[in-house]
Amino acid sequence: xxxxxxxEFDFALINEYFSGLERQGPGSPEATIRALSFIPNxxxxxxxxxxxxxxxxxxxxxxxxTPGTITALDLFPGSIDKLNINAEKFGxxxxxxxxxxxxxxxxxxxxxxxxxxxxxAIANIGFEKGLNYWxxxxxxxxxxxxxxxSWFTDExxxxxxxxxxxxxxxxGTIGHxxxxxxxxxxxxxxxxxxxxNCWLDTYFIPQKVRxxxxxxxxxGNKTAESFIAYLRHEAELYSKYKxxxxxxxxxxxxx
Length: 255
Ligand SMILES: C[S@@+](CC[C@H](N)C(=O)[O-])C[C@H]1O[C@@H](n2cnc3c(N)ncnc32)[C@H](O)[C@@H]1O
Description:
This protein is an alpha/beta fold and 255 residues long. It has helices at 11-19, 29-36, 57-65, 77-89, 127-135, 158-167, 174-183, 197-217, 222-241; strands spanning 47-51, 69-74, 96-100, 113-118, 138-151, 172-173, 186-193, 245-254. α3 links the parallel β1 (47-51) and β2 (69-74).
């Protein structure tokens, strides 16, 4: 039987599931802070955008570790509500604002931002298209910092190749992605792979309880059941093939 791809599940169902988690993709506070260490000269006046922010796991880390203001944008209103509630909870509401919007139609001015951040989300617009389109919203000399699914090797087993090409058709090697960054008008400043704990501790392990809750709520619902089966398959593939792929932080400076 053909396995489902992530594109076959309903957007609302995916978001209901993921908005019950603190993070919606692999990452960690340590990785976010490490990426931030490559960004110089942020001040109280700095303006930062966090695109595809989800419920704001990384947005809060950014806010606690940078001066300036953050506009966090996501397509899913339920995630933005959570993000704004969390910003209040941490007393960050004057510096962090969540808004609903699409990363391929941004409600911003040209040259508005000192820094554009995006963790686990640029594949929704495409790596090259995202880098090209987002550049105009950065000031000259501003920075972009994104995580993106990447191959670690030139070749890999067919099973994992198929899974990721279905999910992210443009997926490429780290060298290829750095060359796209250069081609689209950024000076590549740093790239580093997310360590395994970014997949396990903040992504796969918290999902175990969430999956049980979800299956209980949607007992008998075939779409929900096959969505959870897809996610479990994703976790199994990671443990089998993690030497071949992962998320990579790409940091570049707009020319
Ligand atoms: C894998 S999650 C990552 C969320 C968060 N940055 C994190 O790392 O926990 C991808 C996010 O992109 C959002 N998204 C998908 N398509 C989008 C679009 N066109 N514009 C804005 N956000 C989008 C989803 O709603 C989801 O919150």
